[in-house]
Amino acid sequence: MNTQIPAVLTKALRSANHIAVLTGAGVSAASGLPTFREAQTGLWAQYRPEDLATAQAFRKNPKLVWEWYDWRRSLVAKAEPNAAHIALAEMARRVSKFTLITQNVDGLHQQAGSVDVLELHGNIGRTKCFHENVVIESWLETDEVPPLCPRCGGPLRPDVVWFGESLPKHAIDAAGQAAINCDLFLSVGTSGMVEPAASLLRVAAEHGALGVVINPTRIHAPAGVIQIEADAGEALTALLDQRWPQG
Ligand code: APR
């Protein structure tokens, strides 16, 4: 299916000095990683978020939470970057200024060659001490679940942002600056339901950028935002071809 690119977007692609992109779980769907909120496949359909992705849940049942992330890590380990990740890495190489902001914790953007990725919600491949909040590279493997911090003996946890926790300051500040300064803002594969990431599209539009949503499902978006109802990989590849025709 050939994604139709509106003329106003083609024009913006050609004139943009700074393109900012926010990605969500939909970008990794084609890599086989379940999204969060899609009823039939979404992770949350099987679990109640408050039972897993919060510090309170971890305190109440650290083993359950650790094992759920272990399961997700096993899915990520088998996942490969897809056309969406590859197109974004290529786009970054072709524009003068490109900011990639992701809510995803799977590291697939980096695997596809993207650099300086702003990981708003952390990275499931990193582990930190629950008490000291420092990243722990290695620990003694015992039958303890979760494993224990080699420094303080406390439980280890994934280095991801849980509901109710603050985002890494450098990442959200840089993302906010990119939203303010960019000429074109692409929101790709996200339901736009979780703050503060969800506000970036509005901030960009308010500061004069052309806003674009790429999602097979229409989402709530500010007036003037273009919605391309398509798969991320197809649409992003079409954008690349539109801006830099093959051959
Ligand atoms: N291409 C583009 N978008 C897609 C595709 C696809 N192939 N498949 C699904 N989508 C869209 C869905 O329509 C949905 O709107 O991806 C979106 C995924 O939305 P969510 O599951 O809500 O994921 P996300 O927006 O990334 O969630 C944000 O919420 O649970 C927290 O921390 C978690 O980072 C996550 C945050």
Automatic annotation (TrEMBL):
Q: Where does Zn(2+) bind?
A: 129, 149
Which InterPro entries does the record match to this protein? DHS-like_NAD/FAD-binding_dom, NAD-dep_sirtuin_deacylases, Sirtuin, Sirtuin_cat_small_dom_sf, Sirtuin_class_III, Ssirtuin_cat_dom
SUPFAM superfamilies, alphabetized:
DHS-like NAD/FAD-binding domain
Q: How is the cofactor bound?
A: Binds 1 zinc ion per subunit.
Quote the record's binding site residues for substrate: 69, 72
Locations listed in the record: Cytoplasm
Which cofactor names does the annotation list?
Zn(2+)
| Catalytic residues in the record | 121 (proton acceptor)
Molecular function via GO: histone deacetylase activity, NAD-dependent; NAD+ binding; protein-malonyllysine demalonylase activity; protein-succinyllysine desuccinylase activity; zinc ion binding
This entry carries the following GO cellular component terms, namely: cytoplasm
**What EC number(s) does its UniProt record assign?**
2.3.1.286
Residues reported in the UniProt entry to bind NAD(+): 103-106, 189-191, 232
Q: Which controlled-vocabulary keywords does the entry list?
A: Cytoplasm, Metal-binding, NAD, Zinc
Reactions the enzyme catalyzes: N(6)-succinyl-L-lysyl-[protein] + NAD(+) + H2O = 2''-O-succinyl-ADP-D-ribose + nicotinamide + L-lysyl-[protein]; N(6)-acetyl-L-lysyl-[protein] + NAD(+) + H2O = 2''-O-acetyl-ADP-D-ribose + nicotinamide + L-lysyl-[protein]
Is Transport among this UniProt entry's keywords? no
Task: Give the main localization category.
Answer: cytoplasm
Which family does the UniProt entry place this protein in?
Belongs to the sirtuin family. Class III subfamily.
Q: What does this protein do?
A: NAD-dependent lysine deacetylase and desuccinylase that specifically removes acetyl and succinyl groups on target proteins. Modulates the activities of several proteins which are inactive in their acylated form.
Q: Anything noted about its domains? A: 2 residues (Tyr-69 and Arg-72) present in a large hydrophobic pocket are probably involved in substrate specificity. They are important for desuccinylation activity, but dispensable for deacetylation activity.
Q: What is this protein called?
A: NAD-dependent protein deacylase
Q: Which organism is it from?
A: Capsulimonas corticalis
This protein's encoding gene: cobB
